[in-house]
Design goal:
The protein has 25 helices and 6 strands. By secondary structure, the protein is mainly alpha-helical. Strands 3-2-1-4-5-6 form a 6-stranded parallel sheet, with helices on both faces. Belongs to the monovalent cation:proton antiporter 2 (CPA2) transporter (TC 2.A.37) family. It is a multi-pass membrane protein.
Length: 601
């Protein structure tokens, strides 16, 4: 019986998935990181390996969307005020790095006998580091939010913007390029500024109302589609005017970083970003032309050594000049010495313009790929050396893989109960991050100045994005007992170090929380009921010392009843409800009461 043909790219997809599953765990087990595993997988299945897949170009065109989504997620983590504080790293350190590294590599290329045009393209192209590689390494190590991670990111962000003038340089250097008129440059600049302004304004004033509207539909897949549309759409706008797609997605992410949907968007997009980033690294591994590398290994080796050593030394020196400690400067230097993905774009455009031939293009791409391959190895070697020196007391500023410790509390559920809890905590300066699944409630709380985000407490990825991993305490102030039970199980499984404080809706729920072993719980109306009773007794003329006796006894009997109910069920200990509190000093020894039935709870 005849069977239908397999869908397009079916065999290629199976091959990529199988190679990933086989290579990445091995690379991580060896301590090399997942990036090396992806590169090795691409090398094995590519046209210069076992030739399972013959072209890396089509795969890379799709996989580059992973870089776009990566920058969108990074943008979500950088609020505009925080980005403004990084302006020195972006425009000062970043610009200095591109110019100095570019000029140094141009000088090396000229000494190697290349023409000025080829040397300019090759030198400044190799001066750009790989955003994808560096950020993946920083994220895997949990170091993106450290001081050196943020400084490295500032350099990478400037490099993403630097690709624009570098691409504009190609028509000027091209032997068959015409004269570029000033009017044309002014028009292109105007279009670029308009595109950036459009993305910023749309992100600022349109996206939050859009996501608020979609959130009310309670359809997770629609929110996911909207998140992808925003990330890829903003990137597409930038690409249409000649800018980096990744830069457009980053701007959209920054504009949404102050939105209440920030953590939900990050959690929704993360699986797509991770998968596409892995595919991007595989495509890079596939593009390594082994015959060329082996035939001209001395040229490739010379290019890799010149690129990594010059960039490493200059980045270290510039980082020190801009205020980094010696250890931070070294970590930045070993994270950013490689060539980057934008070099592929620049070198290909230069080859099309006739600045250099196919052999030079292949050689330069080989230098970029090999430098990428060696970067995780350099990071691993640096870490091993730093730890050894630290053990021998040679260095005192040890490698930090975490942010400066400070107490953080994650409040889940931001109704009247959660808001009062947060007010108590923030009054002591404790950092509070809150989640709630009702957009209208979140919008109201944010108007009051609280950091509240739309999020589902039954999703571990959302809790992770919101900071549950670094929270010392999670306060579950949820009104739904079933949802709270699911959240408790997730937090115990994924964030076992966090203390669990819970709001009990009633006595039965309090018993359930006791059985679950949460660290603290309280019935939502217990304290207010006690205070209400105090006020009523005072109004009836009961002395304050007698009221204090009664309150102490009621609290004691409540604890006793809870213990009895844990053993005998909800009705156990009912007799403790109706005792008259004995007076201290022996007065009023009667311990029973003829309390009317209608007063029983």
């Amino acid at each position: 019986m005849a069977t239908d043909a397999a869908p397009p790219f079916f065999f290629e997809s199976l091959t990529v998935l199988a190679a990933t599953v086989a290579s990445v765990p091995i690379a991580r087990k060896l301590g090399l990181g997942s990036v090396v595993g992806y590169l090795a997988a691409g090398l094995v299945i590519g046209p210069h390996g076992f030739d399972f897949i013959r072209s890396a170009v089509e795969i890379r065109s799709v996989a580059e969307l992973g870089v776009v989504l990566l920058l969108f997620v990074i943008g979500l983590e950088l609020e505009p005020a925080r980005l403004w504080r990084m302006k020195g790293d972006i425009f000062g350190l970043g610009t200095s790095q591109v110019l100095l590294c570019g000029m140094a590599l141009v000088a090396v290329a000229l000494l190697g006998g290349l023409s000025l045009e080829v040397a300019l393209i090759a030198g400044f192209g190799l001066a750009l580091s790989s955003t994808a590689f560096a950020l993946q390494i920083l994220q895997e190590r949990g170091q993106l939010t450290t001081s050196y991670g943020q400084r490295a990111f500032g350099i990478l962000l400037l490099q993403d913007m630097a690709i624009v003038p570098l691409l504009a340089m190609i028509p000027v250097l091209s032997p068959r390029g015409g004269e570029t008129r000033g009017a044309d440059i002014a028009i292109e600049l105007g279009i670029t500024v308009a595109a950036v302004a459009g993305v910023v304004l749309a992100g600022r004033y349109l996206l939050t109302p859009l996501f608020s509207l979609l959130a009310r539909a309670r359809a997770r897949e629609v929110m996911l589609a909207a998140a992808l549309l925003v990330a890829l759409g903003s990137g597409g706008i930038m690409h249409a005017v000649g800018l980096s797609m990744a830069l457009g997605a980053f701007l959209a992410g920054v504009m949404l970083s102050e939105s209440s949907f920030r953590h939900s968007l990050e959690a929704d997009i993360e699986p797509f970003r991770s998968l596409l980033m892995g595919l991007f690294f595989i495509s890079v591994g596939m593009s390594l032309d082994l015959p060329v590398v082996l035939a001209q290994w001395w040229l490739v080796l010379a290019g890799v050594v010149a690129t990594m050593v010059l960039k490493g030394v200059l980045i270290w020196g510039l980082s020190r000049l801009f205020g980094s400690s010696n250890s931070d400067a070294l970590r930045i230097a070993v994270t950013l010495p490689q060539g980057g993905e934008f070099a592929f774009v620049l070198f290909t455009a230069a080859a099309v313009a006739g600045i250099f031939g196919r052999d030079m293009l292949t050689l330069l791409i080989a230098v970029v790929v090999v430098s990428m391959l060696l970067t995780p190895v350099a990071c691993l070697a640096h870490d091993m050396l730093a730890r050894r020196l630290q053990r021998h007391g040679v260095v005192t500023d040890a490698i930090e893989t975490f942010e400066e410790a400070m107490p953080t509390v994650l409040v889940v559920g931001f109704g009247r109960f959660g808001m009062m809890v947060s007010q108590m905590l923030t009054s002591e300066g404790v950092e509070v991050i809150a989640l709630d699944n009702r957009p209208e409630r979140v919008a109201y709380a944010r108007k009051l100045g609280y950091r509240v985000y739309v999020g589902d407490a039954t999703r571990p990825d959302v809790l992770e994005a919101a900071g549950a991993g670094r929270a010392v305490l999670v306060a579950l102030c949820i009104e739904n007992d079933k949802v709270m039970g699911q959240a408790i199980d997730l937090i115990r499984a994924h964030f076992p170090e966090a203390k669990l404080f819970c709001r009990a809706t009633d006595r039965v729920h309090a018993l359930e929380l006791t059985r679950r072993g949460v660290d603290y719980h309280i019935r939502e109306t217990f304290e207010s009921s006690v205070h209400f009773g105090r006020a009523a007794l005072a109004e009836l003329g009961i002395p304050s010392d007698r009221i204090a006796e009664i309150e102490e006894d009621v609290r004691l009997r409540d604890r006793e009843r809870m213990e009895l109910q844990m053993q005998g069920g909800p009705m156990a200990g009912a007799d403790t409800l109706h005792r008259v509190t004995p007076r201290r000093g022996g007065e009023g020894e009667d311990t029973t009461s003829e309390t009317p039935p209608e007063t029983k709870r």
